[in-house]
Design brief:
The complex is a heterodimer of chains A (370) and B (400).
Chain A: E1 3-8, H1 17-20, E2 29-30, E3 34-35, H2 38-46, E4 51-55, H3 61-67, E5 81-85, H4 100-105, H5 108-113, E6 118-123, E7 126-128, H6 132-141, E8 146-154, E9 163-169, E10 172-179, E11 186-197, H7 198-210, H8 216-221, E12 230-234, E13 239-241, H9 245-254, H10 258-265, E14 280-282, E15 287-289, E16 291-293, E17 298-299, E18 302-304, E19 307-308, E20 313-314, E21 319-321, E22 324-325, E23 330-331, E24 336-338, E25 340-342, E26 347-348, E27 353-355, E28 362-364
Parallel strand pairs in A: 1-4, 1-6, 4-5, 8-12, 14-17, 15-18, 16-19, 17-20, 18-21, 19-22, 20-23, 21-24, 22-25, 23-26, 24-27, 25-28
Antiparallel strand pairs in A: 2-3, 6-11, 7-13, 8-11, 9-10
Chain B: E1 7-12, E2 33-34, E3 38-39, H1 42-50, E4 55-59, H2 65-71, E5 85-89, H3 104-109, H4 112-116, E6 122-127, E7 130-132, H5 136-145, E8 150-156, E9 166-170, E10 176-181, E11 190-199, H6 200-212, H7 220-230, E12 235-239, E13 244-246, H8 250-258, E14 286-288, E15 293-295, E16 297-299, E17 304-305, E18 308-310, E19 313-314, E20 319-320, E21 325-327, E22 330-331, E23 336-337, E24 342-344, E25 346-348, E26 353-354, E27 359-360, E28 371-373, E29 378-379, E30 384-385, E31 390-391
Parallel strand pairs in B: 1-4, 1-6, 4-5, 8-12, 14-17, 15-18, 16-19, 17-20, 18-21, 19-22, 20-23, 21-24, 22-25, 23-26, 24-27, 25-28, 26-29, 27-30, 28-31
Antiparallel strand pairs in B: 2-3, 6-11, 7-13, 8-11, 9-10
Classes of the chains: A alpha/beta (370), B alpha/beta (400).
Chain lengths: 370, 400
């Protein structure tokens, strides 16, 4: 194989502090049965990458539980496969890394050991289907030193106010900006996908150790747009940035749109940990509309415009609208929920009425009983 | 010291299942879909694993491809083991002779070497066409406590149905004194479930003898068990209480599926204390669209429902378009039901297309029976398939 994959599971945890308090961003549940890391990980596998290192930092138990040996992604391989890369502490420094570049310093051995010529690096802050092979082809064709993937957003369509954006001329990135406000008509927003030769990445990392550089984008990319040939690859397909709880909510809701759902899941190649649940059962009194429902649910109430994860119970007389209900949530009788996100294992007793609003969903933490 | 297993299970999965007609045209009966997510073989396999039996030989013969693919390395059942695990055992060519499996006993006989490599004390013989949850460990304990040579699991059936089964006539202590195969006037209501535990050495001995007997039909029920009884071996009946259904016919397969529905189903697959494991499809959660109506049904992942689904069971990746109606039916995986098609009291096998405005089946009250559409077929636009019809070829609308 020609590329090794690296996935950063923790960077951007601060985007969704509610959900990332007890887990990495990569292990945040999404779309009824997935976790955010399933998207980059599946993209890697579907691009023929069979050595993938997952860089973690903190709260990564749920992540390890989810990816396990990598079996469900066909990444249990004799050589390579899936490798979890927890922080590497030197004897002389006990602090954890604080940046992408520092994290990479901790995995230089992993990089030296890999035989592959190229590296694909991604984060877990978005839902998209990107064929990294196309990016590598583009990178080779353009004799680039580094290729970065971006997505073009019209003003007002990117879910966050701020972002890293590129000035792109004929495919080449000539400027890197961190914008507090995206005010241009169009912005080329960085998707946090990097492609380069492994030797190039090692040079950057070793050089940054020598010169005590800390920030990949600011100290390496932005500083070198003239001296390095940095190409931009435009991703034209679906892209949902998980930049906040609101963006998380909106991105889930987008899965109720048939075109989006078919683009993301149509080819049945988003892999995830397989768990055994019985099929979902609908009772006589169930009324369900425009909703995505995972296996193992028992539905006797009313569900509309919502996403239900595995093993959710909706009792008689209960109405769930515009909500995201995570695994093992139990909703008692005659409740009303509107614009609610329940984390895993939440119980809501009979006759409770809970409501957020579409531009401010109300989050209920893991295991809470109301 | 030789490693050993206390008990090895041998699962008979080679039967053709001819009474399932179109549903088993090119698939072995144990691989037939059940309950939206499962295949029949998931039940005995999960029972084994849940009972602590981790060595299972699956004897295949008839149309094994889908079954072999499904079982694979056994990982979904946790049966990918270094010592033990699940093994597919097809008939093989020997140096001096090679044979298809001539009967249930012959199939096991040909695999004595497979069993003996685990040096088991006991062998559990199962068949791949029953839907039930059973703890074989309890049955094995019963076998051991009674110091039996063979124990047969049995279930009490209504006396009027007993004549459809092999009936066990027992003494007060549970020991069997007589077998009656489909008796006209049954003396007992204890029906054999086709589940046997043998003490391994006894089994090998009787299999060898049976193989040497040219007049034998090499069948457990007809040859081995009567011979053991005649020889005075200790044979016990182990009474099982709980749900058990032979799904060897279209009607019983349909009924067993329907037993999963309702608030208090006759058979509950959602019970986590005895999980039924299966190979799960790689599909996103199912989607229920605007205008859809779903009542008293089971729906698997990957489905997209825009029409009406009532009292039905849908396997994964079934599409029900707007205006289509599915009632009292079993729809297996990858079936597409186009606009305004109506399906009633039917079993639709995998990968079937029901075109626009087609009609399949008739209400049960018409007394025509269950309509069955075999896999990989297309029912054309406006075509009509009457109740009770069994279809294994494409159907187009008849011009009149």
């Amino acid at each position: 194989m020609r590329a090794v994959g690296i996935i950063f599971s923790n960077i951007h945890d601060h985007n969704v502090p509610e959900l990332a308090r007890i887990r990495t961003l990569g292990s945040i549940p999404f779309g009824g049965r997935y976790r955010l890391i399933d998207f980059p990980l599946s993209n890697m596998v579907n691009s023929g990458i069979d050595t993938v290192g997952i860089i973690t930092k903190s709260n990564y138990q749920s992540l390890m539980d989810h990816v396990g040996s990598g079996k469900d992604w066909d990444l249990t391989r004799k050589d390579g496969g899936l490798i979890i890369l927890p922080p590497f502490g030197d004897t002389d420094s006990s602090s954890l890394y604080t940046s992408r570049l520092e994290a990479l310093k901790g995995i230089t051995n992993f990089l030296f050991r890999a035989d592959e010529e190229y590296v694909v690096m991604t984060d877990c802050d978005n839902v998209s289907r990107i064929n990294y092979n196309e990016v590598i082809e583009y990178h080779i064709r353009n004799r680039a030193d580094i290729t970065l993937v971006y997505k073009k957003f019209e003003r007002g369509t990117y879910p966050a106010k701020n972002a890293t954006t590129f000035d792109v001329q004929d495919g080449r990135i000539v400027g890197v900006n961190y914008k507090e406000r995206l005010q241009d008509e169009y912005s080329n927003v960085f998707t946090h996908v990097f492609v380069m030769k492994k030797s190039q990445l090692l040079n950057i990392v070793l050089d940054s150790i020598t010169h005590n550089k800390r920030q990949f984008m600011a100290d390496v990319i932005a500083e070198n747009v003239d001296s390095l040939k940095i190409m931009g690859f435009e991703h034209k397909g679906f892209y949902a940035g998980i930049t906040s709880l609101q963006a998380y909510y909106d991105s889930n809701m987008k899965m109720l749109n048939a075109d989006v759902r078919h683009e993301v899941f149509g080819d049945r190649s988003v892999f995830t940990k397989i768990r055994d649940s019985a099929p979902t059962k609908y009772g006589n009194s169930a009324i369900v509309k425009n909703s995505m429902i995972a296996d193992g649910c028992v539905i006797e109430g009313e569900v509309e415009n919502s996403i239900l994860f595995r093993n959710v119970k909706v009792a008689r007389g209960t109405v769930v609208k515009n909500s995201i209900i995570m695994q093992n949530t139990v909703l008692g009788e005659n409740c009303t929920l509107n614009c609610i996100i329940t984390d895993k294992n939440v119980s809501i007793r009979d006759r409770k009425v809970l409501s957020g609003s579409e531009n401010h969903p109300f989050y209920i933490g893991k295991g809470i009983m109301i | 010291m030789m490693r050993k297993k206390k008990c090895v299970a041998m699962l008979l999965a080679g039967g053709q299942g001819s009474r399932l007609y179109a549903l088993t045209n090119n698939i072995a009966k144990p691989a037939v879909s059940f309950g939206g997510k499962y295949r029949i073989i998931d039940f005995p396999l999960s029972n084994c694993v849940n009972s602590g039996i981790d060595t299972v030989g699956v004897l295949t013969q008839y149309q094994p491809m889908i079954l072999n693919n499904y079982i694979g390395n056994g990982q979904p059942w946790d049966l990918d083991r270094n010592f033990g695990g699940v093994h597919i055992l097809p008939p093989y060519q020997g140096k001096n002779s090679s044979d298809w499996y001539k009967g249930t006993a012959n199939a096991i006989y040909q695999n004595i070497r497979f069993m003996s490599q685990y040096n088991p004390d006991y062998v559990l013989v199962l068949s791949g066409d029953h839907i039930y949850k059973m703890n074989y460990a309890l049955m094995l304990n019963y076998h051991i406590l009674n110091n039996a040579d063979c124990t047969i699991a049995a279930i009490n059936v209504p006396i009027e149905e007993a004549s459809r089964f092999g009936v066990l006539n027992t003494n007060a202590d549970g020991s069997i004194y007589e077998f009656e195969e489909k008796p006209k006037k049954p003396k007992s209501t204890l029906a054999s479930m086709g589940i046997y535990i043998f003490s391994a050495e006894k089994l090998y001995k009787y299999l060898e003898e049976d193989n040497a007997n040219p007049n034998s039909s090499n069948d457990f029920g007809k040859d081995i068990l009567p011979k053991m009884l005649a020889d005075g071996q200790k044979m016990m009946a182990y009474e099982f209480e709980g749900y058990w259904k032979d799904v060897g016919t279209i009607d019983s397969l349909f009924e067993a599926n329907m037993d999963l529905l309702g608030d208090n189903p006759k058979f509950d697959v959602g019970d986590n204390s005895w999980k039924i494991q299966s190979r799960s499809p790689l599909a996103p959660p199912h989607f229920i669209g605007e205008g859809a109506k779903v009542d008293n049904s089971i729906i698997m992942s990957g489905c997209e429902i825009f029409g009406t689904v009532e009292n039905s069971i849908l396997s994964s990746d079934v599409i029900v378009k707007k205006g289509a109606v599915v009632k009292n039916s079993i729809i297996m995986g990858d079936v597409k039901i186009e606009e305004d098609a109506v399906i009633e009291y039917s079993i639709i096998d995998e990968n079937v297309s029901i075109s626009k405005n087609a009609r399949v089946g008739q209400p049960k009250t018409d007394n025509k029976g269950i309509a069955v559409i075999g896999r990989n077929t297309v029912i054309g636009k406006d075509a009509i398939v009457e109740g009770g019809k069994i279809i294994d070829k494409d159907v187009v609308k008849e011009d009149k």
